[in-house]
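F.,

This is the one I mentioned.
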């Protein structure tokens, strides 16, 4: 219950007493929760909830001369992946006791980077997480990293280039798709790929080609797309079907897969009986497509937490290295046996 009888807001000492831990343990639960055992962390957080404890951010800023503010750079794209990643980072930062300031960066021109840097420095941003699905935003991230701690969320870079990188393994996701289709008996597996300037699209193409080659099979037809929409998938599938009718189509995201299914149906082809279709992302509606869509689920929340944890480590002068997070195949009805 709240500390109203005391005539003051509950303090960290009150939380420590309630949880049966030290004042230092409460501080770690707020600032570096990953350093605590899960049962201890939950006990401290329960005490905070029971007492109605809220961290005094202004007092913290005065004491540490830090603002508790993390910058997040978004490419300004409305696609599912960048938006979900942004939300995941914001949630992870909030759970660690930080607020976020968002800046949209679409290119690596010096004036764009300087403007972003001025904005962050003017607001007292301590460090930055950059969502970089394309090389231009990754280049901007490199420029920012010369002035403040930066973590890049992308599937296209490596920490070998002196970058702090977190990403989802797109090649692995594509391999999971192809392996599933081969297990179902498909041998002619085509691919509708995303925009070729996106790291994610490139990784999915690479994984698709690699696993087919390792299985002794030639890659099926590949049709590229200029965007990630259902309309783009519809047009790409029409182009594909004008030359070939594959056993299965691996589509680079779920919305394009929806368009591809519509293109197949417009030619009298049934999914999955005539052609299997697999998407990527596991958008919220994927289970309600007709048929329900087999797809790859990207662990955006895990990536957001990993980016925030990496940022905390590098600001503590500990070298974190990079990490690729494994996606998960979600099997539904749109892919069937050959």
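My design for it:
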């Amino acid at each position: 219950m709240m500390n109203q009888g005391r005539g003051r807001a509950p303090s960290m000492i009150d939380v420590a007493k309630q949880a049966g831990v030290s004042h230092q343990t409460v501080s770690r639960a707020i600032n570096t929760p990953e350093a605590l055992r899960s049962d201890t962390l939950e006990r401290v957080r329960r005490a905070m909830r029971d007492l109605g404890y809220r961290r005094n951010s202004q007092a913290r800023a005065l004491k540490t001369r830090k603002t508790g503010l993390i910058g997040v750079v978004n490419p300004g794209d409305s696609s599912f992946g960048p938006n979900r990643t942004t939300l995941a980072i914001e949630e992870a930062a909030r759970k660690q006791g930080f607020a976020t300031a968002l800046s949209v960066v679409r290119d690596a021109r010096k004036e764009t980077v300087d403007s972003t840097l001025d904005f962050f420095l003017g607001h007292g941003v301590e460090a930055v997480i950059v969502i970089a699905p394309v090389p231009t935003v990754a280049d901007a991230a490199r420029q920012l990293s010369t002035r403040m701690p930066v973590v890049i969320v992308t599937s296209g870079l490596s920490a070998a280039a002196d970058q702090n990188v977190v990403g989802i393994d797109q090649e692995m996701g594509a391999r999971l798709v192809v392996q599933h289709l081969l297990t179902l008996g498909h041998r002619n597996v085509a691919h509708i790929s995303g925009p070729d300037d996106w790291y994610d699209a490139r990784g999915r193409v690479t994984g698709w080609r690699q696993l087919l080659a390792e299985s002794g099979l030639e890659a099926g037809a590949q049709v590229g797309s200029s965007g990630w929409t259902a309309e783009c998938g519809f047009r790409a599938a029409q182009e594909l079907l004008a030359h070939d009718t594959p056993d299965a189509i691996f589509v680079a995201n779920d919305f394009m897969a929806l368009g591809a299914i519509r293109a197949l149906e417009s030619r009298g082809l049934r999914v999955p009986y005539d052609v299997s279709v697999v998407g990527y992302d596991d958008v919220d509606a994927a289970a309600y497509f007709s048929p329900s869509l087999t797809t790859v689920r990207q662990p955006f929340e895990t990536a957001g937490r990993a980016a925030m944890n990496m940022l905390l480590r590098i600001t503590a002068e500990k070298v974190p290295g990079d990490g690729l997070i494994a996606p998960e195949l979600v099997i539904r009805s749109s892919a069937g046996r050959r």
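Residues 1-6 have pLDDT under 50 and may be disordered.

Talk soon.
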